[in-house]
UniProtKB/TrEMBL annotation:
Residues 12-127 form the Guanylate cyclase domain. CDD domains: CHD (cd07302). It comes from Sulfitobacter brevis. Gene3D superfamilies: Nucleotide cyclase (3.30.70.1230), TolB, N-terminal domain (3.40.50.10070). This is TolB amino-terminal domain-containing protein. It comes from the Bacteria. PANTHER family: ADENYLATE CYCLASE, TERMINAL-DIFFERENTIATION SPECIFIC-RELATED, PH-SENSITIVE ADENYLATE CYCLASE RV1264. It holds the Pfam family Guanylate_cyc. The lineage of its organism: Bacteria, Pseudomonadati, Pseudomonadota, Alphaproteobacteria, Rhodobacterales. GO terms for biological process: cAMP biosynthetic process; intracellular signal transduction. InterPro entries: A/G_cyclase (IPR001054), Adenylyl/Guanylyl_Cyclase_3/4 (IPR050697), Nucleotide_cyclase (IPR029787). One of its GO terms (molecular function) is adenylate cyclase activity.
């Protein structure tokens, strides 16, 4: 009886992931498939062939590519990413295709036209640590390309990955893929926030997944609040393991606030700490600590999600009012005037209400249909009616109703 020997090979593997594949397919299924096929035919396949690689597997949302040389693999990956801006130039912003490329040097098992093994798994996990439009390398891959390719890489430290028993050191391609990524993004006209991945302060890798679950819950809860602009989970998680300050993160994502935190586990007890930080100056606005036991994991996660989401609203509103107060008048928009007015509205005094109305008039002069300014104006005029601050009560009531109807519309 003969046994077939397992065929193994030391190889460089590229794991390709199309960012936001489900979103792209949901918006335009046929168009997305057409663009992906064109991308494969015009950029990916030619670069792989040019650098002596072989495409092992094509999936809808990615691919696995095999090279006998790490230098060839890295060179091909960088060439592909550098070609993407020109490819996306003909597409609308919503149809842009971004990819993450993870590269590992490892032992693989070859079975027919497919490959398996730890080397492939690590490449796939490395890709998760990559920025959209970027390239990430394992330490073993980086050691073999150092000084051999015209590209710079930054060490982002050791990372723990799901289903990988050991920590993997990750290096990221340092070149900015898009020329506009160094520019500060404009803030939206309402509080904007990113919930960053929480740090795992314990040695238990299971806590990493629990921390990710808390972040996902908070992101979903905040997204349901219409008064917030919340960065999507995938964009926020691209900062996992990166050592950037919140000012840089705010600039890159275009958000005024970040929520960050940590999870610690010891002796069957859990401690989760969260803090809200303003990105303009890196100022800490609010922090809280939550304690519980292992048996309360899911209850604790729900409680944290509810309490943090509720506590953020007043903290952010106060910070937004203070930010608007610091702005020069010629830089102010409808949102800024409304923020300045809020503090006067809630004083419920005649002279304070009058000051609020003056600010709200300036807000509505910029945007006559701005819902927040309309709602606050209606509230101010309602105060005039209730407290008899004006003689023409009937006229005040009609004016208040008018603002309210415009707001509802």
């Amino acid at each position: 009886m003969s046994t077939q020997r397992t065929q193994r090979q030391l190889a460089a593997i590229i794991s390709v992931d199309v960012v936001g594949f489900s979103r792209l397919m949901g918006a335009d299924e046929v168009g997305t498939l057409v663009h992906l096929k064109r991308l494969h035919k015009t950029i990916i396949a030619p670069e792989v062939i040019k650098h002596h690689g072989r495409i092992i597997k094509l999936m809808g949302d990615g691919a696995i590519i095999l090279f006998s040389s790490v230098v060839d693999a890295v060179s091909a990956a960088i060439a592909i990413q550098r070609a993407m801006p020109a490819y996306n130039a003909d597409l609308s912003a919503k149809k842009h295709i971004d990819m993450r490329l993870g590269i590992n040097l490892g032992d693989v098992i070859i079975e027919g036209k497919d490959i398996f093994g730890d080397g492939v798994n690590v490449a796939a996990r490395i890709q998760e640590a990559c920025m959209p439009g970027g390239v990430a390398l394992s330490a073993t891959a980086y050691e073999h390309v150092y000084g051999k390719v015209e590209a710079e890489f930054e060490d982002v430290g050791e990372r723990e990955f799901k289903n990988i028993a050991r920590k993997i050191r990750v290096f990221r391609w340092a070149e900015t893929r898009r020329p506009d990524q160094n520019r500060k993004l404009a803030l939206p006209d309402k509080p904007s926030i990113a919930v960053l991945p929480f740090d795992n302060m314990s040695s238990d890798p299971d806590q990493e997944y629990f921390a990710d679950g808390v972040v996902e819950g908070l992101t979903a809860a905040l997204s349901r609040m219409k008064s917030f602009f919340v960065i999507a989970r995938n964009s926020a998680f691209s900062y996992k393991g990166r050592h950037l300050n919140v000012i840089d993160i705010g600039r890159e994502l275009g958000v005024g606030y970040v929520l960050e935190g940590s999870v610690q586990r010891a002796g069957g007890k859990l401690r989760i700490t969260v803090q809200l930080v303003e990105t303009a100056a890196g100022a800490h606005l609010w922090a809280e600590r939550y304690d519980g036991t292992d048996s309360e994991l899911f209850d604790l996660q729900d409680r944290i999600t509810e309490q943090v989401a509720g506590a953020l609203q007043p903290s952010i509103q106060k910070a937004e009012i203070e930010r608007a107060m610091r702005k020069r008048p010629h830089d102010m928009g409808a949102y800024d005037y409304a923020m300045r007015a809020i503090r006067h509205v809630w004083m419920q005094e005649k002279d304070q209400s009058a000051k609020a109305l003056l600010l709200l008039e300036q807000s509505l002069a910029i945007d006559p249909e701005y819902p927040l300014a309309l709602a606050l104006s209606a509230w101010c005029w309602a105060q005039h009616s209730v407290y008899n601050w004006l003689e023409d009560i009937e006229g005040v009531v009609l004016q208040s109703l008018g603002f309210g109807l415009r707001c509802r519309a």
